[in-house]
Every structure is written in C-alpha cells, then in structure tokens.
Amino acid sequence: MPGEKELNAALFDQLTIIERIERRAEKGDLNDVKEEIEILKKEINRKLYQEPPLTTK
Fold this sequence. Notes:
By secondary structure, the protein is an all-alpha fold. Helix content is 74%, strand content 0%. The protein is flat, with a radius of gyration of 14 Å. The protein starts with a helix and ends in a 9-residue tail after the last helix.
C-alpha cells in the first residue's frame, strides 16, 4: 500500500486535473472542456504505461 507521501501526490494531481477542467468550463466552451479532458487522458496514460515502470514485480 502506498505511503502518505504517495497518496498526497496522487490527490494533488487529481485536484490539478479538476482545476484545469474548471477553468475551461468557466469559459463556457464545451469543446475546450472536451479538448482538455483528452489531453489529460493522454498524460495519465503516459504515466500508467511508462518504461521503466514505477514498480517492479
């Protein structure tokens, strides 16, 4: 199980994602919101499938 430091880092990352989407939504352009979500999904996938992996089996 991850330690407190790792959990805090994950939570801060999630807050950052929400704040980025909120900024786009406040501008009122749904296409901007969708574009931001797609960018974030690509960033998350890069982290999930990075080489070498964060942990070893």
